[in-house]
Specification:
The chain has ten helices and 14 strands. With 330 residues, it is α/β, with parallel strands linked by helices. The chain folds into two domains: 205 residues, Ribonuclease Z/Hydroxyacylglutathione hydrolase-like (Metallo-beta-lactamase, Chain A, 4-Layer Sandwich), CATH 3.60.15.10; 74 residues, Arc Repressor Mutant, subunit A, CATH 1.10.10. Helix 8 packs across helix 10.
Length: 330
């Protein structure tokens, strides 16, 4: 489905498989049309599956987008933003991405990357073997399976397309170098996944991203300082009150921190997985392992990230037990 959301900017909404991610049912891509003779820019790609590629081709036709005259900007590494690069990258176009995101997309195809991720979560008490880990992890089903020759860009780099003058703003946390495009004069932010109306962005440990929540909260400060009238995110509602939502996000994480501190005080030292067994009960009366694969991660990951953040702040302690599992305590 295509709609013109700003003069010369088209939004393409692509569906997700049912219940892939809690509360998020589609990805929104954006096309910024160049003036006569200029190249168009596509922001992000969708999941790597033929049905989404077919939908996208119809949408491209509707807005007269020609891939030989279109470059692509990738906000971040996740499969819903990078997967279809496999089909959309052709010799005639460029794919712009910041360095760590580009490296990550090419690493996502490798067993080495996923083994390292598995090891990291084993340290937080994850009771899954490698196969179960791969089958349940939220970001490994629709990946780009070929190497992509990215054109590396960096913070502050600028893009002039149509009537827009964009600058790259880095907002890490959800991924190592998550990137937004900001037009200062138009007060417009193409915001990727940094602030969403219906969910807290899922935070993951990645190579070069060891305290995702700390980085994410810092990125909220960065976004808050921008003068934004129009926000165009990649999921959920568009054009919302970004400053109000940032306040809600801070409150959300403050509550998580208080809950974690309360549990350590009342129940004593424990691992992140063990703690997630408590925090899940705040939402649903179930055991963590009784949930379907991917759902477990939406309780485990926020708990991991909150514990890591509080450790970095010096508010709690972290030391490994005899099996190398991190045990957190006051
Ligand atoms: Zn993402």
């Amino acid at each position: 489905m295509v709609s013109e959301v700003m003069p010369g900017i088209y939004m393409i909404a692509l569906p997700f498989p049912r219940r892939r991610v809690k509360s998020i049912d589609e990805i929104k891509l954006y096309v910024i049309k160049g003036k006569d003779g200029e190249r168009d820019l596509l922001l992000d790609t969708g999941l790597n599956e033929e049905q989404y590629h077919e939908l996208l081709k119809k949408d491209f036709e509707e807005i007269g987008l020609d891939l030989t005259k279109t470059d692509i900007f990738m906000t971040h590494m996740h499969d819903d933003h990078s997967g279809l690069l496999e089909k959309l990258k052709i010799p005639e176009n460029k794919v712009y991405a910041v360095e760590k995101e580009a490296i990550a997309v090419n690493a996502l195809r490798t067993d080495e990357y996923w083994r390292a991720r598995h090891q990291r979560y084993l340290k937080e008490g994850l009771p899954m073997d490698y196969e179960e880990f791969l089958a349940s992890h939220p970001n490994c089903a629709y990946l780009c399976s070929i190497p992509i020759d990215f054109t590396i860009v960096k913070e502050g780099d600028e893009f002039d397309i149509g009537d827009y003058h964009f600058r790259i703003i880095l907002t890490p946390g959800h991924s190592p170098q998550h990137a937004c495009l900001y037009d200062e004069e138009k007060k417009l932010l193409l915001s990727g996944d940094v602030v969403l109306t219906n969910a807290a962005p899922v935070l993951f440990f990645e190579e070069g991203l060891d305290n995702p929540l700390g980085e994410y909260l810092h990125s909220l400060d960065i976004v808050e300082k921008l003068d934004i009238e129009t926000i165009l995110p990649c999921h959920a509602e568009i054009k919302f009150d970004v400053y109000k939502r940032i306040g809600e996000m801070r409150e959300h994480y403050e509550k998580k921190c208080q809950r974690v501190l309360g549990l350590l005080r009342d129940e004593g030292p424990m691992s992140a997985w063990h703690m997630a067994e408590y925090t899940i009960k705040d939402d649903i009366p179930r055991e963590l392992m009784s949930l379907s694969g991917v759902s477990r991660w939406f309780f485990f990951l926020p708990t991991c990230m909150t514990l890591r953040y509080l450790t970095e702040l010096g508010k709690i302690k972290c030391s490994p037990d005899d099996n190398g599992v991190n045990i957190y305590s006051l």
